[in-house]
Amino acid sequence: MSFAFLADIARAAGVELPGDIEGNQMRLSTHNIYFDCSKSHRELIEPEIDIVVSVMDTYQWYREHGYL
Question: Fewest 10 Å CB contacts: which of 5, 9, 35, 53?
Fold first, then answer.
């Protein structure tokens, strides 16, 4: 029995899981999914926020909202 199936059952029973995890998220996490941003960079101009700053801001947001 997979953890994703157990998460679906728990959520259906009203059990709150950490981070509001659901079975579909767990199933997708087993796949290697890649995105190519070259078209957006080309058409929308290179992002102005440095990747390090963006990751740090994201980390802080997750901490402030109790996900970490």
Answer: 35
